[in-house]
Amino acid sequence: MPSLEDIRRPVAKEMKDFEKHFKSSMKSNIPLLNIITNYILRRKGKQMRPLFVFLTAKMLGEVKDSTFHAASLIELLHTASLVHDDVVDESYERRGFFSINALWKSKVAVLFGDYLLAKGMFLAVDNKEFELLGITSEAVREMSEGELLQIQKSRKLNINKEEYFEIIRKKTATLIAACTASGAKSVGCDDETVQRMKLFGESIGMAFQIKDDLFDYQNKGIIGKPTGNDIKEKKFTLPLIHALENCSSSERTHIIKTIKKHNNNAQKVKEVIDFTVKNNGLEFSIEKMNEYHKTALDQISHFPENESKIALINLANFVVTRSK
Q: Fewer CB within a 10 Å sphere, N or C end of the chain?
């Protein structure tokens, strides 16, 4: 399986140029904003979303200024959503570093997230990228709806599969769909191709989130034990939902009660993990993840072969085979 570095190779120059473009898009005359921006830029992650934008664009045409605008717009939106998520979740750590709200408090974090969203809008308007703004604005709306839907459903601890898929489509998949749709739009593709690439991104986004949810129940790390973090947070994901739909009513009542009242008890969390494994929650989730992966690859199968298409396929494969 190629590494992320191998996958990046067809757009290595574009990704390097993008860093300067992105940094420039965040600039401000306010010293505090620049301090926070530099802190964020120093701890950047895998930058998979810009990678989806550039690989899509290069598979379908020649990368243009519009592609850099699309990638910056997506990354501004994504960064803003992470900053706001940390405030909502009262999380004080991200990727092993202190979160913005941990260092500068929630008020500053919320305002900084708002600032990034505004910078994204200005970037699009200043460059007359109104179609890209439409694609990303739809993603912002759906992400907000997904978060609120999850909060509403989590309170009752009764999420079913249909609701779960709707939540992850809005919360996670819609942003990756925006990456691939805007990548296609940035090189002048027709509406049918843009929609096809949107479905590719959405399907990969669904597979990505299911893979993330599986980590909670699978052996990993140095000690080889599942983390059970979602259970501790009373978060119902696909493996658990499937297991609860395939057990007796007394078992279901017992497991839900356990999650509700004993979610911080390590032994009880292990009991829920064992129950999920026993009731085929993992097998079902892996099957659904692979279905979404196949749907994604079907969307780009008819495009001519080139280096970027191969890298995009490898990136889709990486999403479902990664170990973290």
A: C
- Is the CB of residue 282 less than 8 Å from the CB of residue 239? yes
Contact 309, 300 (CB under 8 A): yes
Where along the chain do its domains lie? 4-321
Beta carbons of 117 and 77 less than 8 angstroms apart: yes
Q: Residue 215 and residue 124: Cα distance in Å, rounded?
A: 37
Break the chain down into helix, strand, coil percent, rounded to 5: 75, 0, 25
Cα R_g (the chain), whole angstroms: 20
- Do residues 93 and 99 make contact, with C-beta atoms less than 8 angstroms apart? yes
pTM of the model as a whole = 0.90
Per-residue pLDDT of 232-241, as tens digits, reads 888 899 999 9
Nearest CA to 243 among 212, 210, 274, 206? Answer: 274
> How is residue 263 written in tokens?
């979610």
4-321: CATH, from 1.10.600.10, 1.20.120.450, 3.40.50.620, 1.10.760.10: 1.10.600.10
| 137's tokens | 């604005």
Closest CA to 312 of 295, 324, 296, 323: 296
How far apart, in Å, do the first and last CA atoms of the chain sit? Answer: 15
Beta-sheet pairing, 97-98 with 93-94: antiparallel
Q: How many CA atoms lie within 13 A of 103 on its CB side?
A: 14
Residue 14: band (very low, low, confident or very high) from pLDDT cuts 50, 70, 90: very high
Indicate whether 123 pLDDT > 80. yes
Residue type, 57: A
Which spans in 90-237 are helix H? 100-126, 130-154, 161-168, 174-186, 191-215, 229-232
